[in-house]
Amino acid sequence: MTDAMLEKRLEDARPLFAEIWQALADSLRAAGLDQGLAVSGTPHTRVELREDAYDHSQSLYAEWRTPGNGYLGSVLIHGDGQAFAEFDVLLPHPCKPAWVIEAATAWGYRGALKSELRLLPALDS
């Protein structure tokens, strides 16, 4: 696939990316965190097309990393438009002190995204 084709897939996915950012922010807000994801709306660090192992269609994969190359999160959009996004949060849960918010995830199709937070037990102080 050419660079122009990859850019077209990215352009076509922009509305879905916007919905993903909103779904992730809504999950964080529902948990009592007013801040969104630091990477929300920022350019990806790396993007590529990957072959889907199930149906062999081309899936769009975008990844965000820190300047030191630490992983922040990714979005995968399958050929049929289904998306999965996962971004690290790593903050104490503001309403549940026994828990830490490890990540925020979103999945589904444009106009029908679901999202949730992945929690881990907090370490004993």
Summarize the structure in words.
Helix content is 22%, strand content 42%. The protein is built from one helix and six strands; from the N terminus they run H-E-E-E-E-E-E. A hairpin with a 5-residue loop joins strand 3 (71-77) and strand 4.
What's the short story on this structure?
The chain is built from one helix and six strands; from the N terminus they run αββββββ. The chain has 125 residues and is of the alpha+beta class. Strands 1-2-3-4-5-6 form a six-stranded antiparallel beta sheet, covered by helices on one side.
Q: What is this structure's SSE topology?
A:
Layout (H helix, E strand, L loop, with lengths): L2 H28 L15 E6 L6 E8 L5 E7 L5 E10 L6 E11 L2 E10 L4
Antiparallel strand pairs: 1-2, 2-3, 3-4, 4-5, 5-6
Mean pLDDT: 92
Strand order of the largest sheet: 1-2-3-4-5-6
Query: For the report, how would you describe the main beta sheet?
Result: 6 strands, antiparallel
Question: What is the helix/strand order?
Answer: HEEEEEE
Helix coverage percent: 10-25%
Q: Uncertain segments of ≥5 residues (pLDDT<50)? A: none
Rg over alpha carbons = 16 Å
Q: What is the strand tally?
A: 6
Query: Please, how many domains?
Result: 1
